[in-house]
Amino acid sequence: MKYLLLGASALILTACNSASISPSKRSDPSSLAAPSHAYSQADYDYLAISDPEKMSAASKRALARNYHKNEEWFGEFRHETLFGDFAFDEDVSRRDPSKVLKINGVFYTWYTRTTGETKGFGTGDPDAKVFPWDHAEIWYATSKDGYHWQEKGRAVGPGQAGQFDDRSVFTPEILAHKGTYYLVYQAIKAPYLNRTKNTVAMAYSSSPEGPWRKLDAPILTASDTGEWAGTQDNHFLVKSQGDFDSHKVHDPTLLFYRNKFYLYYKGERMGERKTAGGREIRWGVAIADNPQGPYIKSDFNPITHSGHELCVWQYQDGIAIVSSHDGPEKQTIQFAPDGINFEIMAYLPTVPSAMGLVESLDKNAHPTAGLEWGLYHEYVIPAGKTWMSGGNQIKRFSFQSQYYKSSRNSDELTHNESN
Amino acid sequence: MKYLLLGASALILTACNSASISPSKRSDPSSLAAPSHAYSQADYDYLAISDPEKMSAASKRALARNYHKNEEWFGEFRHETLFGDFAFDEDVSRRDPSKVLKINGVFYTWYTRTTGETKGFGTGDPDAKVFPWDHAEIWYATSKDGYHWQEKGRAVGPGQAGQFDDRSVFTPEILAHKGTYYLVYQAIKAPYLNRTKNTVAMAYSSSPEGPWRKLDAPILTASDTGEWAGTQDNHFLVKSQGDFDSHKVHDPTLLFYRNKFYLYYKGERMGERKTAGGREIRWGVAIADNPQGPYIKSDFNPITHSGHELCVWQYQDGIAIVSSHDGPEKQTIQFAPDGINFEIMAYLPTVPSAMGLVESLDKNAHPTAGLEWGLYHEYVIPAGKTWMSGGNQIKRFSFQSQYYKSSRNSDELTHNESN
């Protein structure tokens, strides 16, 4: 395999798309033909590039984007049904499970719970349930084996009429920090319309069983940018879109990282477009010195241009994420050494919705150890109906990696009928 | 929104990953902070980048990879069941439908047809059906409305014992050119082992009904590179992997393009790895002056580093593809102005398997007009079994685009009960 060294004047510097190529390395843009001294024969062989002097655009892109690296980040999700109160329930919808905490040998999770059929918008009844998460409460459940779950009761309910959370509280996440448990969750103040902006609220307790004390005000709000067009309740009609989070701040996820409180969240935008990657969905982060805030949105937002429900965990000194359904980087695992600047590590076939990761896993053992098993939800859609009028069921996922098998006691990992 | 013009010495040239940025345009690699004069306020607004001086790695990547462009290439696939001989059939497996030709007002398609259960490898019986496409024949069917299909009979069967196609013929594609119909398809010479390399064969006829005349020799073979390790029939054990197509040459797809015959195909590699994008699957092309060959593999192969069953059509002066299940660029639509150098245009949620496109659609009307409807296959997997022992059923897909609706007569497009 021969390849040429270019003269210094023609050297092209690009570190596009990879944290692992230092600025001093050089590689070709798709449109130029010359190969680079930065790649080894092993790199070419991995990618089956037989002649570096005659590379297709796809081959140049494969090198530039490190398709020959990071195989240890790849794996595939599997799904399992749960038992007890998480078995399919025709009358109760349970969705958006939080991370799973293991407290005194027992697994805990928090989730959105509703009853009744979703009617949707435009019924003429302002109290009609407009989404599967409308008129919701946050409940919690426990399990000894991660398969049989017992619903324990309500953790947080809506506020009094007139308060910022009087319509619905839902999509919780949990952080245990120095003996205090913090729930962060979405809140809606009535009326619940297409154009309604939500907020993020917090409640805390000294015990996972509660009682939970709510903060008086939201800890995060949608951006006050963008301008609606007209008065019709249509969130696609705008004079200007505003920021990535001008409409919604969803899926709040709280981590203690770098000695601060990182509140990751999904933004939805007024006048949302369909792009080359589908829906425009982006994530942001807001950072505080204290768990109760104030949370300051990062100047570097948005920190992703893809994803949907958040899936975020600390891997060694950085933050790893799984990006799901929407955007050009859908169904990828990404990593940011600093929690802000994410690069794509792996490309997955499918990703479960609304994953709740298990906090007690040995997350630093391997890039994907934090995904070994956890909870997620599925839509249960009756025949002839759409996702809106179905309910949700919490289920369990596992992540199969060729490169990592947990060395822990297996009774937590495989369903044992005698449990 | 302020952004700086950099001094000439700091200008960084990259045309990574986009055919639409000329070499004179410049944009930042992820690791540098300075913005570029190549982007407009509209570009930043599209991506909700509020401060170009403080962009996350994801935002820089979004600009560099044109996430703010190509929205007209996006859409979503829908699925429909077919009727007549393509309804579910417990005894017959039909898979890998070819492109659909419309001849004298009637739709024609060719496909792999088998009966009997797949036994898999290691049974000790050299004649046992090892894959759903083993002991296969190529049959064809017709339809007036694209929904009700009538199976017409066999087009091509296996050869005589000892010939290069004596075990199985399958996965056909069709090209009509100057009054002659050309079938290209995969062929296997017994025995059919894990390590067996297949070939690509051709048969031609002056009528879509046949009779079909086979060429005496394959038109394409797997690369004679790579080296097996040991004698165990295991295709993952290699001393060296060889080229991207050292094991298999699959899914041959023949187009008349730039006044030549472009034979696109999928390569599978000896000692196939699991990479950061899953299975390593790549496409190549071989080009001939005459439809019967000789076909010369392009020096620029591989031309993709992702995909599975081919989906290829001409859009204006270039070639468009849909990349499916495997690799870092799974589930994307890509375009090459020259049929060789593909760039990613859109990122799809799901992609049907083994699509057979409709050749008579007005493909040049819009980037995705060629996908408006077509055929594909699903696996029908009995409870408790794996994909290997299931059968296949041919079904119909449609592609929903926000940007394109066909102006043609609708009776072809929607199932009309009176047809």
Compact description:
Chain A has 419 residues and is mainly beta. Chain A has helices at residues 41-46, 57-64; strands spanning 76-80, 83-84, 92-95, 101-103, 106-115, 137-143, 148-156, 168-177, 180-188, 199-205, 213-214, 220-221, 227-228, 238-240, 248-257, 260-268, 274-275, 278-279, 282-288, 296-297, 312-315, 318-323, 332-336, 343-347, 353-357, 373-380, 391-400. Chain A is built from two helices and 27 strands.
Q: How would you explain this protein's 3D organization?
A:
The structure is a homodimer of 419-residue chains. Chain A has two domains: 23-29 and 37-69, no CATH class; 76-413, Tachylectin-2, Chain A, CATH 2.115.10. Chain A has 419 residues and is mainly beta. Chain A contains two helices and 27 strands. Chain A is globular and about 70 Å long. In chain A, strands 2, 3, 4, 5, 6 and 7 form a six-stranded mixed sheet that branches. Helices cover 3% and strands 36% of the residues of chain A. The model of chain A is unreliable at 1-35 and 414-419 (pLDDT under 50). Chain A has helices at 41-46, 57-64; strands at 76-80, 83-84, 92-95, 101-103, 106-115, 137-143, 148-156, 168-177, 180-188, 199-205, 213-214, 220-221, 227-228, 238-240, 248-257, 260-268, 274-275, 278-279, 282-288, 296-297, 312-315, 318-323, 332-336, 343-347, 353-357, 373-380, 391-400. Chains A and B meet through helix 2, strand 17 and strand 24 of A and helix 2, strand 17 and strand 24 of B. Chains A, B: It comes from Paraglaciecola agarilytica NO2. Chains A, B: Residues 1-19 form the signal peptide. Chains A, B: This is Glycosyl hydrolase family 32 N-terminal domain-containing protein.
